[in-house]
């Protein structure tokens, strides 16, 4: 969801949003059945390539977006590396016990997290929320009252931030000082969250009454301002994954990086 | 009382609450990996924040389906703005919301106390653990470490999505805003008869 900085539109932007989402959900579930680290590594490369080349954002920004991925990779891998089951000990220190098996299993988990992150960020960067909800209404038959509620809700985000600023200024001008420590943190949480939540609910209620009066919840005979359909790019998207993942699978069988076929502990 | 499904008002209020928490969910990720010192599972203590939308929304609106929609909407909000966890959040969100919804449904949406909120939080924690089991090879962790992982997550869930959520809604009740969106209760009808 990008409002304020420029990017090029690529073929990924032209995909049918529902189709893109469903494909990615299938890919997500398929990853759960991959236990071969060689295939997993190739799989990760295939998804990250799509993001690196076709996101339409300048390369520098793409690298910046990749930075938190590193944390995700490390944080997903470490628990299993340090505390996983295994027999071939590499390193032992106190509670930490690194074995060959746990190490590769940890890396495998890190790669999984990277794949999910790659797919997710590709979707987020190449999909306009409005098109997504129009597409969900037209192709997935999502009831309009859900879709329009969500779109209206997204529009409230900037107002929420404005309100946050207002509360901050109001407290500043009155010279409110917060205590330090846990109690101060709780106090701060309270003075911000209560007014922000209550105002949001009031506003949402007012908008909803207006929307209902204007028949936004009507299902029958509804017409749509945006007509979302399928195109040749959807086929291309499907083919990209079929061809690339087949190649990834074949290569992992023919030229494995590691002599491991299943990272699970038997 | 007309209880046939949720009206647009209920849905919009649910979704707006969910979006507020969706932003919290997104901001929670850096917090989460900041408290992750080498896998001793301190991070699991704060994992419960990702279940809070379901309980808060239900405690405010008190209608069937609200918990599920809130958790899905919060997860989608987090997903659409580009979560580091990517697709994971969406799929976890659906299951977490569903499990919380089951708990509220089991008491026929008639109880709004701190116990039921905590039970819903535990249910969400179980949902997330189920996914972790398949996704993260949980059973391949050493036994003591696995136990620590589960206990930390459940305790954290109760504290954040159960107890904290309950008091948050209590404070909101004091502002009177909840009267806008709740269905009329039996006491309201009794008050009319007097």
Automatic annotation (TrEMBL), chain A:
Protein name as annotated: Energy-coupling factor transporter transmembrane protein EcfT
Entry keywords, A to Z: Membrane, Transmembrane, Transmembrane helix
Membrane topology: Multi-pass membrane protein
Listed InterPro entries: ABC/ECF_trnsptr_transmembrane
Any one cellular-component term (Gene Ontology): plasma membrane
The keyword Membrane belongs to this UniProt entry's keyword annotation: yes
Xref: PANTHER family: ABC TRANSPORTER PERMEASE (PTHR33514:SF1), PROTEIN ABCI12, CHLOROPLASTIC (PTHR33514)
Subcellular location: Membrane
Keyword Transmembrane helix (UniProt): yes
Positions of transmembrane segments: 21-41, 61-83, 113-134, 235-252
TrEMBL record, chain B:
Highest taxon, organism lineage: Bacteria
Keyword Zinc part of the UniProt annotation: no
Transmembrane region(s): 12-33, 45-61, 114-134, 146-169
Keywords assigned: Membrane, Transmembrane, Transmembrane helix
Pfam families per the UniProt record, alphabetical: ABC_cobalt
UniProt protein name: Thiamine ABC transporter permease
Biological classification of the source: Bacteria, Bacillati, Bacillota, Bacilli, Bacillales
